[in-house]
Structures are given as structure tokens and as C-alpha cells.
């Protein structure tokens, strides 16, 4: 991967200087995983920072018993593992590939060295971590809102953050309803009914054969997402 493409693909690296980008590329390790494969296991957190070159992953919480809950869905251009390299406490999460995925990893030691060398990269990472914190806070604020509002917020966020524009609207991966339900903090049955209703209205179009969800009418979805009580 060329330095310029590396910078353009990952918002985290958009403000890094050329020397930093060259160094990161020189020490990066490439990975490829098929769908449903564990990308990062619970006991591996803290070893590296991972950048998503293509594909979709989910971050899961492993709670007591058999319950597994999806905490976040991440796509192309995002990264994960950055907090664990600064926090050595035990982890109770893992990362699973939703689709075939390509990643680049940078070891924790080398990434921390880079942060010390490039203050702009350090500042940019803090900005993106704060953005994630705000997204988590928004989900908390929405906890008492109707299920349709919560799900619309999830779809709009995924579309705006990772979506690909096409003639059929904004395309995102056909994320399993269980994962959409977990991230939206609603039930799977509710998610199924709402997605069917959105499809019947023509606001979305699910294309299972290509593993795509077309967000056909982002404006209407955004309006629904803003209808808080």
C-alpha cells in the first residue's frame, strides 16, 4: 500500500506526517480472515492496534454464562485495539469478522513509540476516541426511545461512517439482525419487524445475494432517528 493511500483510507492517519506514515507501513503486518472467523480473541487484547482495510467486524462482550452481546460494528477505515495497549486490565471482549476482512496490525510497542514521535497523530487518536465516547453516550441517551428510533440511529450512523454511495443509495453490509439488535439495544423480533417495515416503505432494500443493505432514503431514516420523545 502506498503512503498516500494509507493516509486517505484511515482518518486516524490523516494528520500524520509522511515520516510517521512510512514508518508505520514498514512495520505493519497484513492479515486476511474469512467471515465468522475470530479476528482478535479475548486474551490477545493489548498486543497490537488493528486497521480495517476492507470488510466488517463486530466487537462482542463475553458475559457470564452463554450470553454474547455485540457492542460495536466497525467497517473499512476504522481501527480497534488502541485502548487496550494503554490499559493492561483483563479483557472480556473479542472481535469477529462479519464478512471477509483484510486488516493491518501494528504492534503495541511500535504504535506507542509512534505516538510519542508524532504529536499530531496522538492528538488525532484522542479526537477519534472522544468521538466514540460521544457515540456511546448517545446510545445511553436513546435508551428510553422507541425501538424504531434506536434502529434508525444505528443504520444512519453505519451509513454515514462506513457506507458506500451507489445508484441505490448508501450501501452497507447486510449485518445480521441479532447484531443490529444488540447495537441498537432492542430485541431481535423488534428489529426484524422494523426492518421489514422500512423495506416496505422503500427506505431500505435488503439484498441477501450480495450481502448488502441499501439505505435508499437516508433523509427519511435521519428524520426517524431524530424523532426522540
TrEMBL record:
A GO molecular-function descriptor: DNA-binding transcription factor activity
Domain Cyclic nucleotide-binding: 12-132
Listed GO CC annotations: cytosol
PROSITE patterns in the cross-refs: CNMP_BINDING_3
Pfam families xrefs: cNMP_binding
Organism domain of life: Bacteria
InterPro entries, alphabetized: cNMP-bd_dom, cNMP-bd_dom_sf, Env_Response_Regulators, RmlC-like_jellyroll, WH-like_DNA-bd_sf, WH_DNA-bd_sf
Protein name per its UniProtKB record: Crp/Fnr family transcriptional regulator
Source organism of this protein record: Oscillatoriales cyanobacterium SpSt-418
Amino acid at each position: 500500500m502506498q503512503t498516500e493511500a494509507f493516509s486517505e483510507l484511515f482518518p486516524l492517519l490523516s494528520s500524520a506526517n509522511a515520516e510517521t506514515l512510512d514508518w508505520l507501513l514498514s512495520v505493519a503486518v497484513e492479515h486476511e480472515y474469512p467471515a465468522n472467523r475470530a479476528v482478535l480473541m479475548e486474551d490477545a487484547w493489548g498486543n497490537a492496534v488493528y486497521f480495517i482495510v476492507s470488510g466488517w467486524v463486530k466487537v462482542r462482550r463475553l458475559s457470564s454464562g452463554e450470553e454474547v452481546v455485540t457492542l460495536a460494528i466497525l467497517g473499512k477505515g476504522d481501527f480497534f485495539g488502541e485502548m487496550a495497549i494503554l490499559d493492561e486490565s483483563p479483557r472480556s471482549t473479542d472481535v469477529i469478522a462479519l464478512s471477509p476482512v483484510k486488516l493491518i496490525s501494528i504492534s503495541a510497542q511500535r504504535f506507542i513509540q509512534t505516538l510519542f514521535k508524532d504529536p499530531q497523530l496522538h492528538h488525532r487518536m484522542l479526537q477519534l476516541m472522544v468521538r466514540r465516547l460521544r457515540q456511546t453516550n448517545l446510545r445511553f441517551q436513546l435508551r428510553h426511545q422507541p425501538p424504531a428510533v434506536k434502529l434508525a440511529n444505528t443504520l444512519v450512523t453505519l451509513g454515514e461512517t462506513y457506507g458506500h454511495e451507489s445508484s441505490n443509495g448508501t450501501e452497507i453490509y447486510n449485518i445480521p439482525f441479532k447484531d443490529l439488535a444488540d447495537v441498537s439495544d432492542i430485541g431481535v423480533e423488534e428489529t426484524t419487524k422494523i426492518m421489514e417495515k422500512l423495506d416496505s416503505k422503500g427506505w431500505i432494500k435488503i439484498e441477501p445475494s450480495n450481502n448488502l443493505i441499501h439505505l435508499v432514503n437516508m433523509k427519511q431514516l435521519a428524520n426517524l432517528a431524530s424523532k426522540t420523545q
